[in-house]
Structure formats: structure tokens, C-alpha cells
Amino acid sequence: MTIDEALSDAVAREVRHGEQALAAATSLRDLGMRNDALSRLYYAVFHHATALLLTEGVEPRRHRGMPGLLLTHLAGAGFDATDAARLARLATYRDMADYERAFDATQEILDSAFVDAGAFIEKAIAHLRARSLSS
To answer: How far apart are the C-alpha atoms of 62 and 80, rounded to whole Å?
Structure first.
């Protein structure tokens, strides 16, 4: 397997995992399981962000570092502070949903998170397609 094939496989795997996490988030939302939906929604975006970073030769190691890595390595590709803020906001929601015992996500928070995730994922997929790394 060539380096290009290995990269393409790794990117495809991340995108597939992101799509699966998004499907899970949507199902959990439909079941009224808002905290669980927020958690899976973050991972949907995380996997797409990882796919983007892999195209730049960067393999992220920490969740909290993702927004900075995105700005550092993909600013020239059109990713900006708005995209980094979406990623950071979703990470915060995920932390609250998973670790704050008293946190109950509202429908408003969940709806806003889905808007953030949708915008980020759409932009990520468009970038990957333009580089012929996603179908």
C-alpha cells in the first residue's frame, strides 16, 4: 500500500466513523436522549476534524487541542475561528453531557449543537471532496 493509499484509507475511516456518530446522535435525539446525542454529535465532528488534519500530516492526540490544530494547519484552506469555536463548543457540551451529573441538555442546546455540527461537517466534506479524499 502506498502512502497516498494509506492516507486515503485513514481519511475514509474517519469520515465513516463521523457519519456513524452523526447517525447515532440523530437517533438519540429522536429518542429524547439529549445528553447522549450531544456526546455522539461531538464525536461526529471530531472524526471529521481528524480526517481534515490527517490530510495535513497531523495526527491529533488530545481532544482539547483540536481547535488550535485546525486553525494552525487549515487556516489556509478556509477554516477559521468560527470553525474552531464550533468544535470547542461541541467539546464543552460533550464534557458537560458526559461528566456533569446535574447537566440536562435542553432542546435549544441540542438544536444549536446540530446546527454547529452540520455546518462543520458540510465544510469538512466539501474540503475533502475538493482534494479527492471523500466521496
So the answer is: 20
